[in-house]
Give the backbone structure.
Amino acid sequence: MSDTKTEKTPLIKTYDDEVEELTGCGATLPCNPTRPLHRYLVLIIMCFLSFGSYFCYDNPAALQDNMVRDLDISVGQFMGFYSWYSWPNVILCFFGGFLIDRVFGVRIGAVVFSLFVTVGQIVFAMGSVVDKYWLMCVGRFIFGIGGESLAVAQNTYAVKWFQGRELNMVFGLQLSFSRVGSTVNMNVMQPIYSFISNSTTGYKCLGITLLVGGVMCILSLICALALGYFDKRADRILKRASVSSDEVIRIKDVRYFGFKFWLLCVICVAYYVAVFPFIGLGLVFFEMKFGMAPSTANSVNSLVYIISAVASPVFGFLIDKSGKNVFWVILGTTVTIACHAALAFTFITPFVAMSVMGLAYSVLASALWPMASMVVQQHQLGTAYGIMQAIQNLGLASISIAAGNIVDSKGYLILEVFFLAWLCIALIAGVLLYLVDAAQGGVLNRSAGDRQKEREEKEKEAIIN
Amino acid sequence: MSAVMERLLLIGVILAFISGTECDRKVTTSIKHGCYNNTEDACGSYGYIEAVGEQDTLHYLVSTLGLPTIFVAYTDKDVTAQVDLDKLLSPNVTERQDTVTFTPSSGVKYSYSMAFTKLIDYNDTKDKADMTQYSPSTTAYNVYDLGDFMWKNISVTSTPENNVIVFEAAPSNNYDDLWLSNGTFSIQLTAFSKSGREDNLPHLQYNENLTQFDLNIDHLYTNLSKSRFAVEIALIGDNAKQMHVDETRSIDDEYTPGVFTIYNWLTDEGDDKGFLQWKPVCYKSLQRSRAEATGMKHYGMRLSTDIDPYMNTLVYGYYGDNLINTMINVGNFSFGLSQDGGYNKTQVLTWSGSIGYGVPPADAISKLVIIIISAGLGLPVVLIIFGGIFVCIKKRNQPVEKPLRSIQGQGYQPLPEN
């Protein structure tokens, strides 16, 4: 964090002492960057920044049957659309984050990655129009390059605008927006396909449907441009610090991220692999163990997503009020352990376990991601989020494969034990994080009141400077 | 010192546990083939599995005479079994009585039998994999009486040195359609001298008190487009006591992935009883794997007073006309699960179960699971306790009266080495 700033780099930079006079609309409440209302309006744009990529990411799932039929591909080839997205991102979003810090800056970065997303979706759709499977894979690949890095840019923006204020809530809101994006996609793509099939059929119809999905990407691109404008304006008016040349990150600097950051990464990967690969396998598990009908099993399985979409901003807000992020992370992990244990060792209806897991996941996600901004310095933030995202992707991709193999050879009980083991690792990392942090003065687990005081201290310090 | 004691105690417990479960039986299998009055047209064979324990003996008499039948007798150790095969093959009912005997007959403590009675093929037009959805008038049924099947000589199909006996149907004129695609229908029986677990899925647990069966349907012909197969099984008790089916749900599916239920069809309460044990899973390929697994369904059992199907079997040979006084229960077992593609997808079905005497084997959670869980949950707890103590001591040693700003300054310092 910016705690270690030296005299060379004051906390709030003052390039010229003249304060810009805002006139006209610029001075009104919604447009004045010094006012909270302006921040909230920008937040809406920020949420829509990655809406398009989340919307289009799950286009194949929403149109699975149509794709397999119209393109005459196997289910394996269909799954290829997802692996062409995810495997490159195991490392690419790390470079995406680095590029944001080093080359583009967050403003240009967001625009560039939105462009990738849009172009990728269009190539994907054109691949369908001309019925070329390989071209569609290329499209998904380009789309993937943009998608994950765009999420990194979004995180970086969030920290830039909301650090020390409503950051937890903002992360919660972004999380819930990603779920909203997928859900909207799942519900509207099929009707769009049916509507277009009135005029054309087969792969052409599919391609045009995907192009309509691409409109969402263009919306996100517009958001990226708007954000860039507002961010630049706010930088000018608020005289926010811009990165000076001696602060530019080098790849080597990753070494200095500190033990706490790597503990955050461990929690991030160990927790997420115990939730998402499980949801991928949950449907059959609920049918087999609890004797549920496929439709019931499906609604139980989607509980985590639905609940987290609603609860994340709320919990984020509460965590903003209370502070003590490490405590919330430990609590979220512990509760998730209890949920997995209930699923593994009891016959209690999974409605309970999955609902509670949805809540626990919301708490954890809203509390975990903002912490990264407290342990690394501002100019390394993109890289830091890129690393977290990359490690998480790597974990999810490899653990999903491992989990499938475990179910086939050893069954669901062992699978649950496997997930419990991961959660225990997350818990150990959480406890270690608390101990290390407490030993170093408790930056992360500070209460909201203390953070308020700290901000006032900082402001005083800035005035003295 | 106490640690050593503890370890010794632990070893003692393990040894006691091992010796407690150790009660192997010596298992020998033999097969006899014979013909009535030495005429070639009335020939048959039976297999005899004898499992001799320390105090008692289990006799399995198995044959395709009349029906594919397994007759089980639990006796004192030195009791011997005799089968008069020539007479059992006789067309004369009275001659077939008392062809299965034990000497001394007072040494027989319990006996019961299992017979595969029918093979059923129904058209699952609604794809529900549930026979109760249909009556004979609402969908097409092909019902094959296994008593009308021709069977290969079991001395040709079996390997008695491995304690394996195979009943294999031979194509015949009775149901010539069934063999249009050169299919096979077979039931394999395997006896064990000690306890363990089957190598193949569903990895049923076996012990010296039971015999496992594998039912294989391989490319039998069906004229039904949504065909699903089922078998009818009869259990014939020693007496008139009520039978029941126990459903045990388990959290543990490590031996049979995805299957959390085990069924036991028990001929009686208490220890003195026969059982038929199965898991509700069958496979759509002879190379069993989880990807080929599909579900199955049983429909409870119903009382039967019809003894005609058993008049040519070993069962009648033992009970004779007393058969009318024993409990006969019949149950259907249908294979497949809704949306699994039905029989026509692979035209192969294979299903396993075991029949035996006494208390059926029950699954227990393996040590691996317990170790992982206790280590996984124990480690964080230990860490929290010791870490908590560490932090408390540290806080007590240096009271926090520093201003917040100096705390900030410590942001990146490594842990002090004390």
Remarks:
- The interface with chain B takes residues 1, 3-4, 258-259, 284-285, 288-289, 337, 344-347, 407-414, 417, 420-421, 424, 427-428, 431-432, 434-436, 438-443, 450, 453-454, 457, 461 of chain A (CB under 8 Å).
